[in-house]
Write a structure and sequence with these properties.
- It is a single chain.
- The chain is of the alpha/beta class.
- The protein has two domains: about 190 residues, Rossmann fold; about 60 residues, no CATH class.
- Helices cover about 30% and strands about 25% of the residues.
- It contains seven helices and ten strands.
- The protein has a six-stranded mixed β-sheet, with helices on both faces.
- A hairpin with a 4-residue loop joins strand 9 and strand 10.
- It is globular, with a radius of gyration of 19 Å.
Length: about 260
């Protein structure tokens, strides 16, 4: 296992962050404790861990949807206080607007002052995601994978600097998940954006990540950092290589017992 040290070039920084919630019985529940890391420009970090370890809370803090109880979350050196279009968030659920067509969903966040440029951007993303023939369809007519392609295109079309992904492929079948992983890597490579993704899937983490953070629960904390082999693009075929197999086994042995991966 190789370790990387965080440095001052971080695009996104968590500085000794803790988060406490109050449940419906007015009990204090500590979701996160002492989370510290930096995500650098053009870096792809994947956070893995069992349900309830605070993975999604980290994304919500990075997106500006929640506030810390202690510590700071910084973006380009400034404390995050609210959402910002430079930080795009894609959820696991198919977060598309059912009353809008595919084209209208994708163009939703664009500045409406340049309609010709918008049409060109939307056409490019329809082609890139393989949705050109479904531009005028409504989400109810699409498969789960297609709806996630719409959500990804709608987020990426506004050119975010940081892409936040909350188990975006968790509800997809294995074949569709693999195609979406490949599409995501291509979209990120073309845009140069940074990525913070959370998942339960160790294999997915090894395919996508520059660094993998393993989290444990009660309260959520980072247990260890792992660095996959550097070659990209990676596929499931790479996972049969001895280096990948060894790293997969090491992560699995450290994975908290609340969840054993399928």
């Amino acid at each position: 296992m190789e370790m990387k040290t965080n440095n001052d070039t971080g695009l996104l920084k968590f500085q000794n962050v803790s988060k406490t919630f109050v449940d419906n019985k007015f009990r204090k529940i500590q979701a996160l404790a002492n989370i510290t890391f930096a995500l650098n420009q053009s870096e792809f970090i994947v956070i893995i861990g069992p349900s309830g370890c605070g993975k999604s809370t980290i994304l919500r803090l990075a997106a500006g949807l929640d506030k810390t109880s202690f510590g700071k979350v910084l973006y380009r050196g400034k404390q995050i206080k609210e959402p910002d279009r430079r930080r795009g968030l894609v959820f696991q659920s198919y977060s598309v607007f059912p009353w809008l067509t595919v084209r209208e969903n994708i163009e939703f966040g664009l500045d409406k002052t340049d309609s010709r440029l918008n049409q060109e951007k939307v056409s490019n993303w329809l082609f890139f995601t393989g949705l050109a023939n479904f531009a005028d369809a409504y989400p109810k007519a699409l498969s789960g994978g297609m709806r996630q392609r719409v959500a990804l295109a709608r987020t990426m079309i506004v050119e975010p600097e940081l892409l936040l992904l909350d188990e975006p492929f968790g509800a997809l079948d294995e074949r569709t998940r693999e195609s979406m992983q490949a599409l995501l890597l291509k979209a990120v490579a073309n845009s140069g954006c940074s990525v913070l993704l959370v998942t339960h899937d160790i294999r997915e983490a090894l395919i996508l990540a520059d660094r993998v953070f393993l989290m444990g629960p009660h309260p959520g904390k980072i247990l260890d950092t792992f660095v996959p082999p550097s070659e990209k693009p990676r596929t499931r075929d790479n996972l049969s290589n001895p280096e990948f197999k060894s790293l997969y086994k090491e992560i699995l042995n450290r994975f908290p017992v609340q969840l054993l991966e399928d």
